[in-house]
């Protein structure tokens, strides 16, 4: 019901084709390599800008950074050059408006101001797509080899005829990809700022390159699963056959809706000793490889789902987080801003679509790292 109000009528009729294209389009090796380069460029641009400011709000600033990366990689350089800020404002409006009680509770045919505002934002989002796709048709040779996801869907016979639904598809994708990726990076900054010993243990040098030093790359990847502690999403699944619960006499009937709570799994001390502690080393095996935690028949880390329903954008989100954290921790010093460290990390904001942010945000000061001093 929530997403129905954010998408145009008919989108979910074709949703399977469009959603199936995400894994094929986003996880191409050449695309991921390109996305890593673009994410790195955006990270350096954002950090350079923030280092000239007195303080920056962690979640809000990371939100704008992640948005810019997603637009540049998924939509393309043309959407980025012409509309990146307007798209951010439109998505913020739609996210706020779809959660308005009138839009949640009233049918679409009942007139009301939040409904009209949501329709205006949705229509402008679609208008931007029509403008940019029309411009691409006039320069088809320029865009033929572009690795952005829109170009992939335009050239895939299974989705090329569904261009009218691209705006709704990308609204849904942005809702799904943006908030939780922001939360993962921002909570990592909070935890690292509270745990200064981590910076010493990383043995940072000015010559870091994600692609050149695989083990160092994995060390940065091990930093960002504080989303384990702050995962507020819920997963709904329907049983296809009766399922007997291990250790009990209860059998879940066929066609039952089952609610799965990643939060409870992520805080189970039998799986994660000292579950309320931020321990990045738990994500690395003794030989330096990342600990996957999830097996073929069991799952302990559910931030991106598991099995057939695993998030197809997991690799993309990991690249964004890794590139940003590498640029931040290798090149910059972090300290708490004007108000100091947040006093209460349990104040969570669940108004976003996805993992919660910190209510009221928190400010940090970012300055270039001085080597050899």
UniProtKB/TrEMBL annotation:
One of its GO terms (molecular function) is oxidoreductase activity, acting on paired donors, with incorporation or reduction of molecular oxygen. Heme binds at residue 311. Belongs to the cytochrome P450 family. Pfam families: p450 (PF00067). InterPro entries: CYP450_sterol_14alpha_dmase, Cyt_P450, Cyt_P450_CS, Cyt_P450_E_grp-I, Cyt_P450_sf. This is Cytochrome P450. Its cofactor is heme. It comes from the Eukaryota. The keyword Plastid does not apply. Keywords: Heme, Iron, Metal-binding, Monooxygenase, Oxidoreductase.
């Amino acid at each position: 019901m929530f997403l129905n109000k954010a998408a145009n009528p008919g989108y979910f009729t074709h949703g399977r084709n469009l959603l199936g294209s995400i894994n094929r389009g986003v996880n191409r090796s050449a695309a991921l390599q390109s996305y890593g380069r673009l994410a790195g460029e955006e990270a350096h641009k954002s950090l350079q800008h923030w280092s000239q400011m007195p303080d920056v709000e962690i979640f809000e600033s990371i939100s704008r950074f992640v948005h810019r990366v997603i637009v540049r990689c998924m939509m393309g350089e043309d959407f980025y050059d012409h509309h990146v800020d307007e798209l951010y404002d439109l998505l913020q409006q739609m996210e706020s408006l779809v959660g308005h009680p009138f839009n949640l509770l009233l049918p679409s045919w009942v007139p009301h101001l939040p409904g009209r505002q949501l329709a205006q934002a949705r229509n402008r989002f679609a208008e931007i797509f029509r403008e940019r796709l029309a411009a691409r048709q006039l320069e088809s040779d320029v865009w033929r080899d572009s690795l952005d996801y829109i170009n992939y869907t335009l050239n895939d016979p299974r989705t090329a005829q569904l261009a009218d639904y691209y705006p709704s598809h990308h609204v849904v994708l942005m809702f799904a990809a943006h908030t939780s990726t922001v939360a993962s990076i921002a909570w990592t900054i909070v935890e690292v700022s509270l745990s200064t010993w981590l910076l010493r243990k990383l043995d940072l040098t000015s010559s870091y390159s994600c692609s050149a030093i695989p083990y160092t790359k994995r060390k940065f990847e091990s930093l960002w699963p504080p989303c384990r502690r702050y995962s507020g999403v819920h997963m709904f699944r329907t049983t296809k056959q009766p399922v007997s619960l291990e250790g009990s006499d209860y059998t879940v009937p066929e066609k039952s809706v089952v609610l799965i709570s990643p939060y409870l799994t992520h805080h189970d001390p039998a799986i994660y000793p000292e579950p309320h502690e931020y321990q990045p080393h738990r994500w690395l095996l003794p030989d330096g490889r990342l600990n996957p935690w999830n097996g073929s028949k069991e799952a302990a880390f559910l931030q991106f789902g598991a099995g057939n329903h695993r998030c197809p954008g997991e690799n993309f989100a990991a690249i964004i987080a890794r590139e940003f954290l590498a640029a931040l921790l290798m090149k910059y010093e972090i300290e708490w801003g004007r108000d100091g460290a947040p006093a209460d990390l349990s104040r969570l904001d669940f108004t976003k679509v996805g993992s919660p942010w910190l209510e009221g945000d928190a400010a940090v000061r970012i300055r270039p790292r001085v080597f050899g001093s």
